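notes to self, project folder thing:

trying the whole complex as one job this time. last attempt i did each chain seperately and stitching them together was a nightmare. two parts in total, labels are on each line so i dont mix them up again. if this works i'll redo the older ones the same way
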Amino acid sequence: GAVVSQHPSWVICKSGTSVKIECRSLDFQATTMFWYRQFPKQSLMLMATSNEGSKATYEQGVEKDKFLINHASLTLSTLTVTSAHPEDSSFYICSAHGGRTSGGTDTQYFGPGTRLTVL
Amino acid sequence: QKEVEQDPGPLSVPEGAIVSLNCTYSNSAFQYFMWYRQYSRKGPELLMYTYSSGNKEDGRFTAQVDKSSKYISLFIRDSQPSDSATYLCAGGSNYKLTFGKGTLLTVNP
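result (full assembly):
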């Protein structure tokens, strides 16, 4: 099956610093990747859609200057949380578009997630 | 009203039981539906996807969609302790997925 990796798996940082999270599709090319945030006992909330070679599309309420997304290649997207604050502490998960099935379903394969704690 | 509603549970069943997980949705634009399984502190794992009303079976799992009532279900037969996880339903259109809150399932040996 399609494999998506994330690095790091967890990170602790001081308030005011920036943190970069990498998302890689290991055995397939993904023109589109997605970044989600998940708070404890809550659902996945889509933050932005990342397209290779173009600017990311952010969901309403997500600050694009705070959450910088770069999709430089067909297998790598990065999310940088700039000037992180304690309220940014969350579980960040990426997914990669795995293509369209014969029935027209767009599949997404998820990475293992990155747990960010901002002190 | 949220686009995808899912009872968060928790749901606790004995090993071997049949499990029924349900979601309702309000967005008529959804073209397909997904079920994901998420273990604690892990990313979601795709279980099943469907794009039309009716049933789809894969081993012990059956996904059911009723577009007329905007109702989607996942049935797990012969449940195992390893099935203990959070199950997320999602509706999709134009690449985007909208998730329910997830149902926490515990299968007791």
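what i see at first glance: Chain A touches chain B at residues 4, 6, 32, 34, 41-44, 46, 49, 91, 93, 95, 97, 101, 103-113, 115 (CB under 8 Å).
need to look closer tmrw
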